[in-house]
Design a protein that fits this description.
With 549 residues, the protein is α+β, with helices and mostly antiparallel strands. It contains 19 helices and 20 strands. Strand 5 and strand 6 form a beta hairpin. The two termini are 54 Å apart. Bound molecules: adenosine-5'-diphosphate and magnesium ion.
């Protein structure tokens, strides 16, 4: 037997669990059942893909067994299991992206920690909210040697080999003695377990069987009773499913504990049949702008789980959308590479995208504001990448503007407010609102009463260069080229008067600039530097340099 230490981050998360930061401890069971369900999905798929894998798949299920005397609760599955190395990697460390970031934030804000960690999902470690010792025994499908892992949730765990472990994983919780007298936390009680499973795990597509005692003709015997309905939510019609069931399902697949902002259900019939159940979260994940962030719904084929994060089904700019797509006519053997090429997949993806965009468009004002605040910067990437839907994206986009410092505007709103004689949609990109507002480039526009869009996201630099127009109006930077605003002064006359000064300045500064000209764009500043119409902006130049180009 070996004693090993938890990785530092794992230890910190465990501390939070041991000292139970959640008011709702019941969810530990949901997490364990969720893991068991994933393990069953995986073994079915593995056995299908590898006929030589010596895996038992005839009766895949989850078992729950409580022992009132010992005060233990065991969650058992006959799924894929874990090798010894996997136990160390998966249970002893946290590999999820964003962990360090999360822990830093948790330290900063003590009070909202439950809220923050909810974004993350705590999984297996939530066992330590209710148990002071956890024993896990597992054997990977196709292997002969099993592994036993045990920990009290402090700094270390032990790991050992076992010879007679069945395929799959069993997790035994030694329940905390301090909860023994509190019926709220009586996790050995049949009614309590039934209640939790019905509330949180009813939709799990595998049977969850509870060991119960039955008395018949004075004879008491134990048997396993299935206590979930196993109905795939996405295959049921919307009015058959309670809002709460959708929310629980969302939690199961997203590991986000806040309710989704929007639930989208699609059921396509005909030659290419599929069902989709998609969710728009109500807040952005920590890793939304990290390079390695994953995307795409889970893919099922005829109720059989095929893969997580099917990126072929979702463009990058909608990477925050979660959900499930179940296709009827795909082979169970599809690989990610095949999917990228598959015409039906591409067709499906197009429909999902259209549906998501139209759902956003029809959100009420409050929802939309939340949505745009959280995900707007990601969605705008679509203006650069998704040519087909550019119009729709422009329609749902909103931008900060000089019109109202509190409220962003849609382009439609901007166009409606355009002044007589104003031809273009004006914008200025920059690092922050105050830098932009105080830029000398803005002066003439302020004087004229022209509204200017204030673009401060990195992606703004990219799309303004590639999107030609909205509603027949071109986008025009106030910092570029010759902006001719009729401010009443006669520039041409004055140019003659100042010809000497202008040519002297041009000559003197010729190593740094192209020309010096008189401008009507300034009202209080004496001079400003402008780019040529087709120059890259300073911010973009910085970005390119940062990328080594
Ligand atoms: P998550 O489920 O979000 O990945 P968890 O903490 O719940 O995080 O689990 C960590 C990992 O441990 C899982 O991703 C899985 O690889 C492994 N694991 C946990 N429980 C089981 C189980 N019952 N069977 C097989 N693997 C499991
Ligand atoms: Mg989990």
């Amino acid at each position: 037997m070996e004693t090993l230490e938890f990785q530092a981050e794992a230890r910190q998360l465990l501390q939070l669990m041991v000292h139970s930061i959640y008011s709702n401890k019941d969810i530990f069971l949901r997490e364990l059942i969720s893991n068991a369900s994933d393990a069953l999905d995986k073994v079915r798929l593995a056995a299908f893909q590898d006929k030589d894998l010596n895996a038992e798949t005839s009766d895949l299920h989850i078992e729950l067994e409580a022992d009132k005397q010992q005060r233990t609760l065991t969650v058992r599955d006959n799924g894929i299991g874990m090798s010894r190395d996997e136990v160390v990697d998966l249970i002893g460390t946290i590999a999820k992206s964003g962990t360090a970031e999360l822990l830093r934030k948790l330290k900063e804000s003590k009070d909202s920690s439950a809220d923050l960690i909810g974004q993350f999902g705590v999984g297996f470690y939530s066992s330590f909210m209710v148990a002071d010792k956890v024993t896990l025994v597992t054997r990977k499908a196709g292997q002969s040697q099993g592994t036993r892992w045990e920990s009290e949730g402090e700094g270390t765990y032990t790991i050992d080999s076992v010879d007679d472990a069945p395929q799959g994983t069993s997790v035994t919780l030694h329940l905390k003695p301090e909860d023994a007298e509190d019926h709220l936390f009586d996790y050995t009680a049949e009614y309590k377990i039934r209640e939790i499973v019905r509330r949180y795990s009813d939709f799990i597509t595998w049977p969850v069987r509870l060991k119960v005692e039955k008395t018949e003709n004075d004879e008491t015997k134990t048997e396993f009773e299935t206590i979930n309905s196993m109905k795939a939510l996405w295959a049921r019609s919307k009015d058959e499913v309670a809002e709460d069931e959708y929310k629980e399902f969302y939690r199961h697949i997203s590991h986000d504990w806040t309710d989704p902002l929007e639930i989208i259900q699609m059921q396509a019939e005909g030659t290419f049949e599929y069902q989709a159940l998609l969710f728009i979260p109500s807040r952005a994940p920590l890793d939304l702008f990290m390079r390695e962030s994953k995307r795409g719904p889970q893919l099922y084929v005829k109720r059989v789980f095929i893969m997580d994060e099917c990126e072929a089904l979702m463009p990058e700019y909608l990477r925050f959308v979660k959900g499930v797509v179940d296709a009827q006519d795909l082979s169970l053997n599809v690989s990610r590479e095949i999917l990228q090429q598959d015409r039906q997949i591409q067709l499906m993806r197009r429909r999902l995208v259209k549906k998501i965009l139209s759902t956003i468009k029809s959100m009420d004002a409050e929802k939309y504001q939340t949505f745009w605040k959280e995900f707007g910067a990601a969605v705008k990437e679509g203006l650069v990448n998704d040519f087909d839907n550019r119009e729709s994206i422009l329609e749902i986009a909103s931008f900060a503007s000089t019109h109202d410092p509190e409220k962003p505007t849609t382009l439609k709103g901007y166009v409606e407010r355009m002044k007589d004689g104003q031809e273009h949609i004006y914008y200025l990109t920059g690092a922050s609102r105050s830098i932009i507002e105080n830029s000398p480039h803005m002066e003439a526009f302020k004087a004229k009463g022209y509204e200017v869009l204030i673009l401060t996201d990195a992606i703004d630099e990219m799309w303004v260069g590639s999107v030609p127009e909205f509603d027949g109006r071109q986008f025009q930077s106030v910092a570029k080229g010759q902006v001719d605003l009729d401010t009443g002064s006669d520039t041409e006359e004055k140019s003659k008067d100042f010809a000497g000064l202008l040519s002297w300045m041009t000559e003197t500064l010729k190593d740094n600039i192209k020309e010096v000209r008189l401008s009507s764009r300034l009202t209080t500043s004496p001079a400003c530097i402008v780019g040529d119409s087709n120059d890259v902006t300073p911010t973009l130049e910085k970005m390119y340099r940062a990328m080594g180009q």
